[in-house]
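Limitations
The structure tokens in this dataset are predictions for the assembled complex, not deposited experimental models. Users should treat interface geometry with appropriate caution, especially where small molecules or nucleic acid strands are included. An illustrative entry is reproduced here so readers can see what is and is not provided.
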Amino acid sequence: MRSRIPELIAVYRDGLLEDTLPFWIQHCVDREHGGFQFCLDRDGTVVDTDKGVWTHGRFIWLLSTLYNTVEPRAEWLELARHGVEFLRRHCFDTDGRMFFTVTREGAPLRKRRYVFTEAFAAIGLAAYARASGEEQAADEARSLFRLMLRYSTTPGLIPPKVDQGTRPSKGIGFPMITLGTARVLRAELQDPLADEWIDKAIDEIRRDFVKPDLEAVMETVGPGGELLDHFDGRTLNPGHALEAAWFILAEAWHRGGDKELTDLGTSMVDWMWRRGWDEQHGGIFYFRDLRDLPVQEYWHDMKFWWVHNEAILATLLAYRATGDVKYSEWHRMVHDWAHQHFADPEHGEWFGYLHRDGRLSVPLKGNLWKGPFHLPRMQLLCWQALEGMRELE
Amino acid sequence: MRSRIPELIAVYRDGLLEDTLPFWIQHCVDREHGGFQFCLDRDGTVVDTDKGVWTHGRFIWLLSTLYNTVEPRAEWLELARHGVEFLRRHCFDTDGRMFFTVTREGAPLRKRRYVFTEAFAAIGLAAYARASGEEQAADEARSLFRLMLRYSTTPGLIPPKVDQGTRPSKGIGFPMITLGTARVLRAELQDPLADEWIDKAIDEIRRDFVKPDLEAVMETVGPGGELLDHFDGRTLNPGHALEAAWFILAEAWHRGGDKELTDLGTSMVDWMWRRGWDEQHGGIFYFRDLRDLPVQEYWHDMKFWWVHNEAILATLLAYRATGDVKYSEWHRMVHDWAHQHFADPEHGEWFGYLHRDGRLSVPLKGNLWKGPFHLPRMQLLCWQALEGMRELE
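Predicted assembly:
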């Protein structure tokens, strides 16, 4: 990889600053009603005026983080503020919880059980607090982080999907979102609660979701990490697992190269790359089954953009930590396949959803789930990691 | 079509009695814990022991209806009773509502907002009441029908998905399930409530979901039939629409060839065939957009078994009602494509989920959504319709 570093830096940096960011800034800013419209057709046309609140928090985080770590461009700060204003005016319910979607004008549409909206708003406001110097934003970020923790850890506050109590279970999503949110709260605000929860989240992932004897990272287990031999319990999500792996590898790097965390993260990459990479068509499957039985979800063999973003990051950080050429090779494979199949040179940014063989399934550039987050986060963090690796030479 | 009638009868009848039914009877009957296990791999192996309650109601209906209208085979009645016993013992909550899934042993797993479980139990118990002569089953069927009506029509009893009240909407599923359930309650029990609700359901479909100016049958509209120009409101479900169409055509035939209902049903077939048939690969898309914008759901261009079952029925009943060769041709197209792509001659029954081009996506023969219902219902009703058409010659 070393010889490719300058070229890769250019791909990520220019992809971020010349393609991804301009696409969203050109098409999604709502100057009339505030906030952003993320439901965009291939060419950036707005196809649904509804506003997803997850993506508002995420875009605020991205813009503020660019301002904080790339360059203090006034445009980025202004857009972040534009998002924060809409968030504050329209996206909070009277109980302090947040809505999941609102109309263009900001009227509430849907509110959901999980606290993911609050987590993304927390990271957005934390990064924005540093960028703007606003103490209110810092307070809001800390409050939302605490709300998220309280809801995640108080039994009964979030009714489970399988709700009759017979087979309690938990998903890796919760420790992952805790880990990701806490890392941002620590980086932006030095929140004293962050370190404790980073450790707790990693402990939970390691103890309950990581199964060395099965060489698998589970998506859903019993409350004590039990394997649930049913569709839900056997279904693995390589994208999620690779994302958790790079969170852990990033934390390992932050701690100066913590060996145990590095081994944990690279093991997760090893197992889930092998389970997820499609030998026949390339790319990474959306779901796999622990025992290679059929998966119930229809889109199990589709190729989603965010899964590939996480895989690119995970293989790069695994290479950075170990120098093992296996990760360099895997990174090249997924980087090349993803850019060849997802990128849209004609209209910009990436498609989100491909069939197994790489053909386009859905031409949307944005919807409730795809917005300016996974792709630019990958581009930014890969760029920065590679710059650091270049310096090490 | 007339020259093909004997051949088609054989395909449907033998498919039902020599393939579909034996597949399920051989693999899904749980003699140890009662009821049925419908989560089957391609070859019939049980891959998840959890029990879906929708499918219990549906299978009880199928077995009882075969007993009532094909032949009074003791095996069918015994299996229906086997299902009814499990349903009664394990599938009702203390409030009279039913669970959505239970464990193998019958412990409750999940209960949902909608009253579809109750509707399928109602039709199962109604048909079983006639087959067995059991008055208790008839009472239960009538009670569940009334429970379903009460929940569907009392505001607030079923919290909507888009739950903040800003954009109320309704789905065609409710009048459809009412229509389908009422027709069975009338046929099996001569329930005096049935005729009134058959009319109301058809009125609601005609008034609020059928849009002649757009040549579309809507899946989701506002409470007064308003078009909602968002992803959810624009997304059309050809399979659902074709199913609603044949319900209406069957009702038209029941009324001695009601012209207005026939025209309504055939219009629905015309529009939704045109929107749904895949000119390039054959088969019927799962979702389309009213304005041909991108659909948000990932599986929009996949080919599902049940959609094709409903299309086969709809085109056949449209041909029966009109003699129009267009429907004969469409029926041939979808009948041939579906049998070529979904049928599994090696292990029996049909696959459920194909990619757009007809290649297999999921090898499961059964899961929470696919069981002994859509395919055998199609086979049975097509067989019976064609027998009737043969007599008319």
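Some entries come with short summary sentences. For this one: The mean pLDDT of chain A is 96.
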